[in-house]
Specification:
Distance between the termini: 21 Å
Helix content: 25-40%
Number of strands: 8
Length: about 170
């Protein structure tokens, strides 16, 4: 897989925050609406990212299930707390241990990148979009020619395939 889908480089990382009560379809709806409003193609999404323990949330899982080949990165709250963001929330900080999930997770999974869409909220979910830096290198880069083409797993295999937890202090 070259990281290109119909000529579109896969350079976007969508950070996701989802409360316990978020409905299964809520994150995907918010994600697609946010991309459309920003004029960004869904096919450019390379990764999803969230706080540790949320990759298996039904709303996050539903979004990942509808984006084949797009992994979900998890980052410890302590690591996300160290990522500077434009819109921190004291309420989120109190509840989760980091003042940002969506913006911080998007940036943490886009090394050297920048936010192209700050957080957007629905009733129980939040998304933010970062673009990976053009100078990012290595096979993990979405458009790197050596990035393996992940198999399209069965529904039962998706949790283990799509979750990566970054150790504390490792935001790459």
């Amino acid at each position: 897989m070259s990281g290109l889908v119909a000529g579109v480089p896969r350079t976007l990382v969508v950070g996701i925050g989802a409360s316990t009560g978020a409905e299964r379809t809520e994150v995907l709806r918010l994600l697609t609406d946010t991309l459309r409003e920003a004029g960004l193609p869904l096919s450019a999404v390379a990764r999803l990212a969230t706080v540790a323990g949320r990759a298996d949330h039904p709303a996050v899982r539903w979004a990942a299930d509808h984006l084949p080949g797009v992994p979900v990165d998890e980052h410890p709250a302590e690591a996300l707390a160290g990522v500077p963001v434009p819109n921190p929330s004291t309420a989120v900080g109190t509840a989760v241990g980091t003042a940002s999930v969506a913006e911080a997770a998007a940036l943490a999974s886009a090394p050297g990148g920048r936010l192209v869409v700050t957080k957007r909220k629905s009733a129980r979910a939040t998304v933010a979009i970062a673009r990976r830096a053009a100078s990012a290198t290595g096979p993990d880069r979405p458009d790197h020619p050596d990035r393996p083409n992940p198999p399209h797993p069965s529904r039962a295999d998706r949790t283990s395939r799509t979750t990566r937890t970054a150790p504390p202090g490792d935001l790459s």
